[in-house]
Design brief:
Radius of gyration of chain A: 20 Å
Shape of chain A: globular
Number of helices of chain A: 10
Distance between the termini of chain A: 33 Å
Order of helices and strands of chain A: HEHHEEHHHHHHH
Strand order of the largest sheet of chain A: 1-3-2
Low-confidence stretches of chain A: 6-17, 233-251
Structural class of chain A: mainly alpha
Number of strands of chain A: 3
Mean pLDDT of chain A: 83
Oligomer: homodimer
Strand content of chain A: under 5%
Helix content of chain A: 55-70%
DNA sequence: ACTTGGTAGACTGTCTACCAAGTGCCATCC
DNA sequence: GGATGGCACTTGGTAGACAGTCTACCAAGT
């Protein structure tokens, strides 16, 4: 079964380098579980038993409990007192609400990013746009999706607002999870919009940047709905055991 | 010492009435600790020791640990591995960032509230405005502050977006904590703005509602800065033990 | 056929005890 | 005075125990 690697995988930060801070076990467990939820190893609605997970991951109950509680707070699982945790089953209107929240958060981030952007930031953004477009044109969906994530993440970081960063990161991860069962579409349009967005930021035009980001998110929401409507009955049907649902393609947001 | 009351205090919901679901201890501990942080019983920067808190609250280490971890995730305390938790000491730019995040969240909420408002909602909003203004004019600051909170809370609820509600609630609580050491100002202007906001919502004018909320928050931020500058050296000085800092007045946001 | 009552098993929530490792502090030493 | 070493304290994690509660199932009664 999946066993936790206690290895610390901090991103390299310039300047002071903390020699080594062994990641708390609960953190690793948290990461492992979200991973398993996202990739479908732990299916939606499944009852998660503490000792079972503990056994899987080779740790004791305590770290698992703590991880589960965090997952509960962030909406990945639902904790029913006296019974246990179930992997969250998203309601149909939930994606809509997530995207609305994301629109607000990221559009504000874009506004602030436009306000604070440095030459260096803009260069990085442009580079990401180029790379992403290249990935898209060469048909490398995974690469395009990854670059898309990096671009959005960089923009929120550029806002210089840690709360926006935190919230947006949380929402983004959830969105990506829900999107998983959807086919990849609207790749080209997405990168055109990214270009416009980056242009607005580089010009320091706050309103235009915010507006561009909002429209970008809005288009994503529309695309999701269209797909939902297209293979609606397919997805609306009760989950069959025979559908492993692992690692489907992701939409380019 | 503060002892936990395990009493459940659910808000009354119409229709099905769940008899009684005993709150998990960790939840009560969490509530108790935030309470103590907000009201200043646990001063900023104070070192929190698990066994000590457990003794205070009459529970074992376990629920305390779990509560502390949640507090850490939400930014109320900083957890230093191997040493313990310290009550978070806000950086000066933090309030700014919180208010910026709040501006984004609540302004979007106002937009959606304007979109979805029912006759009933509008009536409640207007009532709150009236009550709040009355409180303000009669000099009942606590009442005005409470009503202000209820108004903002109702608006986010009206957005119908659970994520906006959650995030806004989190931010709001933090904001209220940081504000505590600030004097009450701008009461009259605040309620004038509320009136304009409610009017926009009742007319279903999304853009106007969003704009009104944004300006409202922005004014609050300015007011905070002015006060900060006014008695700047006072607050900037290192905390003296002699300053109990309990229950100071709150600004009307 | 439907409800009621009872029983059994499974899990969580919480407590206690314990140990290893990391951290901060203080006295000591050069 | 500044480095050093050691000590007390605290967390992080493990193990085991136990009560309360939740689910499911079965049997009897209506």
């Amino acid at each position: 079964m999946t066993t936790i690697s206690t290895g610390t995988s901090d991103p390299v930060s310039p300047g002071v380098r903390h020699v080594k801070r062994p990641t708390p076990l609960r953190e690793s467990v948290y990461e492992a579980l979200t991973e398993m939820i996202i990739d479908g190893t732990l299916e939606r609605g499944r009852h998660l038993v503490e000792v079972e997970l503990a056994g899987m991951l080779g740790v004791s109950r305590q770290p698992v409990r703590e991880a589960l509680q965090r997952l509960n707070n962030e909406g990945w699982v639902d904790l029913r007192p006296g019974f246990g945790a179930m992997v969250h089953v998203p309601a149909e209107d939930e994606v809509d609400q997530l995207l609305a929240a994301r629109a607000a958060l990221e559009s504000e981030s874009a506004r602030l990013a436009a306000r604070h952007a440095t030459k260096d930031d803009v260069a990085k953004l442009k580079e990401l746009c180029k790379v992403g477009t290249a990935y898209h044109e060469s048909g490398d969906i995974d690469g395009a999706v990854r670059t898309n994530g990096e671009l959005h993440s960089l923009i929120t970081q550029m806002s210089g607002n840690r709360f926006l960063v935190d919230f947006a990161a949380q929402v983004d991860r959830r969105v990506r999870w829900y999107y998983t069962p959807v086919a990849p579409v609207r790749g080209a349009a997405s990168w055109r919009e990214h270009n416009r967005l980056v242009k607005a930021i580089s010009e320091g035009d706050e309103d235009k940047a915010a507006q561009a980001m909002r429209e970008h998110t809005e288009h994503t929401r529309k695309a999701y709905h269209d797909l939902q409507a297209a293979n609606g009955s397919d997805e609306a049907a009760p989950e069959t055991e025979a559908t492993p649902r692992r690692r489907r393609r992701t939409i380019t947001s």
